[in-house]
Amino acid sequence: MTASPYGQAGTDAAPACPRHPDRVSYVRCQRCNRPVCPECQRPAPVGVQCVDCVASAQAAMPARRTVFGGRVREGRPVVTITIIVLCLLAYVVLRTAEARTALVFVPFAGESEPYRFLSAAFLHGGFLHLAINMYALWIVGSVLEPALGRWRFAALYLVSAVAGSVGVLLFASPYELEWITPVVGASGAVFGLFGAVGVTMRRLGRDTTQILVLIAINTVIGFTIPNIAWQAHLGGLVVGALLAAAYVYAPRKRQTATSIVATVVVAAVLVALAVAKYAIS
């Protein structure tokens, strides 16, 4: 008779943990009945379970979803933090105007270098500009990302950023100075988040007075203080609100499909608007 490597009852072999064969354990998993060492033990309603059984049970469980279809995750808002880090790195690495020339958005250059529509959203004109936008992003992103889920939040931010540049393009005239004026900043994307928060709170039946006042104040600032691209604010705000409406008002059973279609359609409309503007300019 041969002995089981896990030390089954009726054999002379000492029971050993399958994951750590050099460790003897007389405690067994309540699900698979294998020996489990202290390192591999996980508390269970009765006794303990091994890490393999716990992992299998977790994988079999359906993912928890928010009311808007986003996956419930523990921890910090990863997408928000990633965007902030990228903006900080861009500020540190691309300090000189020469280093940023190829990435800023300039209406006349957008047709031949369309990447500028997005790259400009990760650049800032100064530390105060960067600090204000990143603070707003952190405050709003910490609430919105867990509610919408990571991919919806990322899509909302990026499409709103592009919408900000498109807004600048649509209001620019080839015969005016703004056609060759560079624009940078995450303001368009941040205003998209402002619009999304307002729509989301409205969908939940919450009071939207504070967010509306915040949007109004920032809109007035954009029109009264020079060197602020209010066109980018407007473009981001409108698109962010539209996308958020599609995300949060989608039927429960078709939330993912509706969100994907809405994101693609809005992005396509922005591209069409930009193409049309260049065609008539």
UniProtKB/TrEMBL annotation:
Listed GO biological process terms:
proteolysis
- Span of domain Peptidase S54 rhomboid: 112-248
- Give compartment(s): Membrane
Supply the InterPro entries for this chain. Answer: Peptidase_S54_rhomboid_dom, Rhomboid-like_sf, Rhomboid_protease_S54
Q: Which residues form the signal peptide?
A: none
Keywords recorded for this protein, A-Z: Hydrolase, Membrane, Protease, Transmembrane, Transmembrane helix
What family is it from?
Belongs to the peptidase S54 family.
Specify the protein name: Rhomboid family intramembrane serine protease
